[in-house]
Amino acid sequence: MKVGLFFGTFNPIHIGHLIIANYMAEFSDLEEIWFVITPQSPFKQKKSMLSNHHRLAIANIAVDDYQKLKTSDIEFKLPQPNYTINTLIHIEEKYPEHQFCLIMGEDNLKGFHKWKNYETILQNYELYVYPRISDGTTDSQFLNHPKVHRVAAPIVEISSTFIRKSIKNNKNIQPMLPEKVWNYIDEMNFYKA
């Protein structure tokens, strides 16, 4: 199976994430999309960052109705700080029957040349890039690279930061979250303080 790995803190996961992941699952050759929840760095404790298990629980609630979308806590078990190359090696060892690819926004591709072992990643994995409104330019080596696939997914400019700030300021952002996710966040009083 060809699986797209969508990395992020997902603090919280929102409809923008789901729109992109579902688009990749339905309109590319990727058969499943796994949301890889990045653990909170022990070196950078953020007050607004929910614990790993809460962010995973919210992501599980969000993907529950989507057969081709899954979650992964694989990075929770890896030593910190962790790098994408380590996760890729680890996930391949655990699931040798799958072919893994990376999903990233255009903004991440612009800084991809700064990633640890980016040449090795590009040599061994395909990148599926969705459009983002961002500054800067993409390094020319990635523009026509055979392993870099641009996918014309919808541009969704919703951010988890905006959602957290809005909840804290008592704004109604219900339409930006799946209903079950909104209900869970509201019941648990997350992001209100």
Give a verbal description of the structure.
Helix content is 36%, strand content 16%. With 193 residues, it is α/β, with parallel strands linked by helices. Strands 3-2-1-4-5-6 form a 6-stranded parallel sheet, with helices on both faces. Helix 2 (52-63) runs antiparallel to helix 8. The longest helix has 13 residues, at 15-27.
Please give the order of strands in the largest beta sheet.
Answer: 3-2-1-4-5-6
Distance between the first and last residues' Cα: 42 Å
Q: Using only CA atoms, what is the Rg?
A: 17 Å
How much of the sequence lies in strands comes to 15-25%
Overall 3D shape: globular
List the helices and strands and how they pair.
Elements: E1 2-8, H1 15-27, E2 32-37, H2 52-63, E3 69-72, H3 84-94, E4 99-105, H4 106-110, H5 118-124, E5 127-130, H6 140-143, E6 148-150, H7 160-168, H8 179-187
Parallel strand pairs: 1-2, 1-4, 2-3, 4-5, 5-6
Helix pairs in contact: 2-8
What is shown here, in short?
By secondary structure, this protein is α/β, with parallel strands linked by helices. The protein contains eight helices and six strands.
